[in-house]
Amino acid sequence: MRKPLVAGNWKMNKTIAETRDLVFTMSMKLRKIEGVEKVICPPFVSLMAASALLEGSGIGLGAQNMHWEEKGAFTGEVAPGMLKELCSYVILGHSERRTYFGETDETVNKKVLAAQKAGLTPIVCVGETLAQYEAGQTSDVVSTQTRAGLQGATSDFASKIVVAYEPVWAIGTGKASSAENAQAVHAGIRQVLSEMFGKETAQAIRILYGGSVTASNAAEFFSQADIDGALVGGASLKVDDFVGIVSQSKVAKGE
Ligand code: 13P
Asked: Residues 254, 1: contact at Cβ < 8 Å?
Protein backbone atom coordinates (compact mmCIF):
# COMPACT_ATOMS: atom_id res chain seq x y z
CA MET A 1 0.00 0.00 0.00
CA ARG A 2 1.15 3.54 -0.69
CA LYS A 3 1.15 5.91 2.25
CA PRO A 4 -0.02 9.36 1.15
CA LEU A 5 2.57 12.11 1.03
CA VAL A 6 2.01 15.85 1.06
CA ALA A 7 5.01 18.09 0.49
CA GLY A 8 5.20 21.87 0.71
CA ASN A 9 7.46 23.53 -1.83
CA TRP A 10 8.18 26.94 -0.34
CA LYS A 11 10.09 28.03 -3.47
CA MET A 12 12.07 31.27 -2.87
CA ASN A 13 10.03 32.43 0.11
CA LYS A 14 10.71 33.13 3.80
CA THR A 15 13.87 34.27 5.56
CA ILE A 16 15.52 32.07 8.16
CA ALA A 17 13.69 33.89 10.96
CA GLU A 18 10.37 33.60 9.14
CA THR A 19 11.05 29.92 8.50
CA ARG A 20 11.56 29.33 12.21
CA ASP A 21 8.20 30.92 12.99
CA LEU A 22 6.30 29.12 10.27
CA VAL A 23 7.86 25.70 10.90
CA PHE A 24 7.27 26.02 14.62
CA THR A 25 3.57 26.89 14.24
CA MET A 26 2.96 24.44 11.43
CA SER A 27 4.70 21.50 13.07
CA MET A 28 2.56 21.82 16.21
CA LYS A 29 -0.50 21.09 14.08
CA LEU A 30 1.04 18.76 11.51
CA ARG A 31 2.56 16.37 14.03
CA LYS A 32 -0.92 15.45 15.25
CA ILE A 33 -2.03 14.24 11.80
CA GLU A 34 -1.29 10.56 11.32
CA GLY A 35 -1.42 8.23 8.34
CA VAL A 36 0.24 10.66 5.95
CA GLU A 37 3.86 11.56 5.30
CA LYS A 38 4.42 15.30 5.65
CA VAL A 39 7.40 17.07 4.09
CA ILE A 40 8.46 20.71 4.17
CA CYS A 41 10.89 22.07 1.55
CA PRO A 42 12.21 25.53 2.49
CA PRO A 43 15.13 27.29 0.74
CA PHE A 44 18.66 25.87 1.28
CA VAL A 45 19.70 28.51 3.82
CA SER A 46 16.80 27.60 6.11
CA LEU A 47 17.30 23.83 6.10
CA MET A 48 19.54 23.91 9.16
CA ALA A 49 17.06 25.90 11.26
CA ALA A 50 14.13 23.82 10.06
CA SER A 51 15.88 20.52 10.72
CA ALA A 52 16.57 21.52 14.33
CA LEU A 53 12.92 22.44 14.84
CA LEU A 54 11.58 19.31 13.18
CA GLU A 55 13.75 16.82 15.04
CA GLY A 56 11.57 14.09 16.53
CA SER A 57 8.40 15.56 14.98
CA GLY A 58 7.93 12.87 12.33
CA ILE A 59 7.77 15.65 9.73
CA GLY A 60 10.19 15.27 6.85
CA LEU A 61 12.44 17.92 5.39
CA GLY A 62 13.46 18.40 1.78
CA ALA A 63 15.55 20.66 -0.44
CA GLN A 64 14.33 22.14 -3.72
CA ASN A 65 17.30 21.28 -5.92
CA MET A 66 20.88 19.98 -5.85
CA HIS A 67 23.87 19.36 -8.10
CA TRP A 68 24.71 15.84 -9.26
CA GLU A 69 28.43 15.93 -8.51
CA GLU A 70 29.73 15.01 -5.07
CA LYS A 71 31.95 18.09 -4.76
CA GLY A 72 34.15 20.41 -6.77
CA ALA A 73 34.35 23.69 -8.64
CA PHE A 74 30.63 24.40 -9.11
CA THR A 75 30.18 27.86 -7.62
CA GLY A 76 26.82 28.39 -6.02
CA GLU A 77 25.77 24.75 -6.11
CA VAL A 78 24.96 22.31 -3.30
CA ALA A 79 26.03 18.65 -3.33
CA PRO A 80 23.91 15.60 -2.43
CA GLY A 81 26.11 14.67 0.53
CA MET A 82 25.69 18.16 2.00
CA LEU A 83 21.91 17.81 1.88
CA LYS A 84 22.01 14.33 3.32
CA GLU A 85 23.28 15.80 6.60
CA LEU A 86 20.21 18.03 6.80
CA CYS A 87 17.27 16.38 5.09
CA SER A 88 16.04 13.24 3.38
CA TYR A 89 14.06 14.54 0.39
CA VAL A 90 14.97 16.66 -2.60
CA ILE A 91 12.68 18.11 -5.27
CA LEU A 92 14.23 17.56 -8.71
CA GLY A 93 13.31 18.87 -12.14
CA HIS A 94 10.67 21.35 -11.03
CA SER A 95 9.28 23.17 -14.07
CA GLU A 96 10.61 26.49 -12.73
CA ARG A 97 14.10 24.98 -12.79
CA ARG A 98 13.53 23.62 -16.27
CA THR A 99 12.18 26.97 -17.51
CA TYR A 100 14.47 29.48 -15.78
CA PHE A 101 17.64 27.50 -15.09
CA GLY A 102 18.02 25.29 -18.12
CA GLU A 103 17.35 21.93 -16.50
CA THR A 104 16.79 19.14 -18.97
CA ASP A 105 15.66 15.53 -18.71
CA GLU A 106 19.35 14.66 -18.89
CA THR A 107 20.39 16.78 -15.89
CA VAL A 108 17.32 15.66 -13.97
CA ASN A 109 18.38 12.07 -14.56
CA LYS A 110 21.93 12.78 -13.34
CA LYS A 111 20.43 14.25 -10.19
CA VAL A 112 18.09 11.30 -9.65
CA LEU A 113 21.03 8.90 -9.89
CA ALA A 114 23.05 11.13 -7.55
CA ALA A 115 20.16 11.00 -5.06
CA GLN A 116 20.22 7.22 -5.32
CA LYS A 117 23.92 7.20 -4.50
CA ALA A 118 23.53 9.64 -1.62
CA GLY A 119 20.48 7.98 -0.10
CA LEU A 120 18.13 10.91 -0.66
CA THR A 121 14.51 10.47 -1.74
CA PRO A 122 13.85 12.51 -4.88
CA ILE A 123 10.52 14.10 -5.70
CA VAL A 124 10.81 14.16 -9.48
CA CYS A 125 8.60 16.71 -11.21
CA VAL A 126 7.09 16.20 -14.65
CA GLY A 127 4.42 18.15 -16.50
CA GLU A 128 3.43 19.71 -19.79
CA THR A 129 3.21 23.40 -20.75
CA LEU A 130 -0.04 25.05 -21.76
CA ALA A 131 0.90 24.86 -25.44
CA GLN A 132 1.65 21.14 -25.12
CA TYR A 133 -1.60 20.59 -23.23
CA GLU A 134 -3.58 22.39 -25.89
CA ALA A 135 -1.84 20.42 -28.61
CA GLY A 136 -2.87 17.16 -26.94
CA GLN A 137 0.74 16.22 -26.14
CA THR A 138 0.39 15.73 -22.39
CA SER A 139 0.76 11.98 -22.37
CA ASP A 140 3.81 12.02 -24.69
CA VAL A 141 5.57 14.80 -22.79
CA VAL A 142 4.98 13.34 -19.37
CA SER A 143 5.94 9.80 -20.46
CA THR A 144 9.18 11.05 -22.01
CA GLN A 145 10.08 13.10 -18.93
CA THR A 146 9.34 10.15 -16.63
CA ARG A 147 11.34 7.66 -18.68
CA ALA A 148 14.30 9.96 -19.19
CA GLY A 149 14.33 11.23 -15.62
CA LEU A 150 14.21 7.85 -13.92
CA GLN A 151 16.23 5.72 -16.30
CA GLY A 152 19.05 3.74 -14.72
CA ALA A 153 17.51 3.74 -11.24
CA THR A 154 17.53 0.36 -9.52
CA SER A 155 14.12 -1.20 -8.86
CA ASP A 156 14.78 -1.05 -5.16
CA PHE A 157 15.49 2.67 -5.30
CA ALA A 158 12.72 3.34 -7.82
CA SER A 159 10.12 2.07 -5.36
CA LYS A 160 11.11 4.93 -3.03
CA ILE A 161 11.11 7.66 -5.67
CA VAL A 162 8.22 10.10 -5.57
CA VAL A 163 6.94 11.47 -8.89
CA ALA A 164 5.03 14.75 -8.97
CA TYR A 165 2.77 15.55 -11.91
CA GLU A 166 2.63 19.32 -12.15
CA PRO A 167 1.03 20.71 -15.29
CA VAL A 168 2.90 23.98 -15.88
CA TRP A 169 -0.34 25.78 -16.71
CA ALA A 170 -1.73 24.95 -13.27
CA ILE A 171 1.23 26.17 -11.23
CA GLY A 172 0.51 29.38 -9.34
CA THR A 173 -2.38 30.23 -11.65
CA GLY A 174 -5.31 29.24 -9.46
CA LYS A 175 -6.40 27.05 -12.38
CA ALA A 176 -5.90 23.53 -11.07
CA SER A 177 -6.28 20.54 -13.35
CA SER A 178 -9.54 18.68 -12.97
CA ALA A 179 -9.15 15.66 -10.72
CA GLU A 180 -10.23 13.39 -13.61
CA ASN A 181 -7.58 14.79 -15.95
CA ALA A 182 -4.90 14.41 -13.27
CA GLN A 183 -6.00 10.84 -12.54
CA ALA A 184 -5.72 9.93 -16.24
CA VAL A 185 -2.19 11.37 -16.42
CA HIS A 186 -1.19 9.64 -13.17
CA ALA A 187 -2.46 6.30 -14.48
CA GLY A 188 -0.34 6.87 -17.60
CA ILE A 189 2.73 7.63 -15.47
CA ARG A 190 2.17 4.46 -13.45
CA GLN A 191 1.95 2.49 -16.69
CA VAL A 192 5.32 3.91 -17.80
CA LEU A 193 6.79 3.07 -14.39
CA SER A 194 5.42 -0.44 -14.71
CA GLU A 195 7.12 -0.88 -18.08
CA MET A 196 10.38 0.45 -16.64
CA PHE A 197 10.51 -1.27 -13.26
CA GLY A 198 7.77 -3.91 -13.20
CA LYS A 199 4.26 -3.79 -11.83
CA GLU A 200 5.12 -4.36 -8.20
CA THR A 201 7.59 -1.48 -8.07
CA ALA A 202 5.21 0.79 -10.01
CA GLN A 203 2.50 0.02 -7.46
CA ALA A 204 4.79 1.19 -4.66
CA ILE A 205 5.74 4.55 -6.21
CA ARG A 206 3.86 7.57 -4.92
CA ILE A 207 2.64 9.97 -7.60
CA LEU A 208 1.67 13.42 -6.32
CA TYR A 209 -0.39 16.06 -8.05
CA GLY A 210 0.83 19.68 -7.96
CA GLY A 211 -0.62 22.90 -9.34
CA SER A 212 -2.98 25.23 -7.46
CA VAL A 213 -3.85 22.67 -4.79
CA THR A 214 -5.89 24.24 -1.98
CA ALA A 215 -7.74 23.00 1.09
CA SER A 216 -10.92 23.30 -1.01
CA ASN A 217 -9.91 21.12 -3.97
CA ALA A 218 -7.49 18.67 -2.26
CA ALA A 219 -10.09 16.05 -1.30
CA GLU A 220 -11.17 15.64 -4.91
CA PHE A 221 -7.61 14.89 -5.98
CA PHE A 222 -7.00 12.53 -3.07
CA SER A 223 -10.12 10.52 -3.92
CA GLN A 224 -8.53 9.40 -7.22
CA ALA A 225 -7.00 5.92 -7.37
CA ASP A 226 -3.55 6.98 -8.61
CA ILE A 227 -3.17 10.30 -6.78
CA ASP A 228 -1.10 9.62 -3.68
CA GLY A 229 -0.77 13.11 -2.30
CA ALA A 230 0.19 16.61 -3.35
CA LEU A 231 3.13 18.90 -3.98
CA VAL A 232 1.87 22.23 -2.75
CA GLY A 233 3.31 25.65 -3.57
CA GLY A 234 1.46 28.80 -2.48
CA ALA A 235 -0.86 27.11 0.01
CA SER A 236 2.09 25.47 1.81
CA LEU A 237 3.10 28.92 3.13
CA LYS A 238 -0.16 29.33 5.06
CA VAL A 239 -0.54 27.24 8.18
CA ASP A 240 -4.26 26.58 8.03
CA ASP A 241 -4.29 25.92 4.29
CA PHE A 242 -1.41 23.44 4.42
CA VAL A 243 -2.72 21.69 7.53
CA GLY A 244 -6.14 21.53 5.85
CA ILE A 245 -4.66 19.86 2.77
CA VAL A 246 -2.58 17.38 4.78
CA SER A 247 -5.49 16.38 6.98
CA GLN A 248 -7.56 15.41 3.94
CA SER A 249 -5.06 12.92 2.58
CA LYS A 250 -5.15 9.90 4.79
CA VAL A 251 -6.16 7.03 2.58
CA ALA A 252 -3.48 4.51 1.61
CA LYS A 253 -3.87 3.18 -1.91
CA GLY A 254 -2.55 0.44 -4.14
CA GLU A 255 -2.23 -3.32 -4.02
P1 13P B 1 1.16 26.24 -6.54
O2 13P B 1 0.58 25.29 -5.49
O3 13P B 1 1.47 27.58 -5.97
O4 13P B 1 0.35 26.25 -7.78
O5 13P B 1 2.60 25.63 -6.94
C6 13P B 1 2.69 24.29 -7.26
C7 13P B 1 4.13 23.94 -7.33
O8 13P B 1 4.85 24.37 -8.20
C9 13P B 1 4.65 23.02 -6.31
O10 13P B 1 5.91 22.56 -6.62
From this structure: yes
pTM score? 0.97
Q: What is the pLDDT of residue 146?
A: 98
User: What residue type is assigned to position 124 of the chain?
Assistant: V
Residue 186 catalytic? no
The CA 64 to ligand 1 mean position distance, Å, reads 12
207 strand-pairing partners: 163
H helices of 55-104, in order, are: 80-84, 95-100
Give the residue whose CA is nearest to atom 2 of ligand 1: 233
Q: What is the enclosing helix (H) or strand (E) of 239?
A: helix 239-247
- In tens, the pLDDT along 167-202 reads 999 999 999 999 999 999 999 999 999 999 999 999
Instruction: Round to whole Å and give the CA distance between 54 and 60.
Output: 8
Model confidence pLDDT, tens digit, residues 55-72: 999 999 999 999 999 999
Looking from the CA of residue 170, the nearest atom of ligand 1 is: 4
Burial of 78 (0-12, 13-18, 19+ CB in 10 A): middle
Cα–Cα distance list, 83 to 51, 59, 70, 209 (Å): 11, 16, 11, 24
Scored b (16 or more CB within 10 A) or e, 187-218 reads: ebbbbbbeebbeeebbbbbbbbbbbbbbbebb
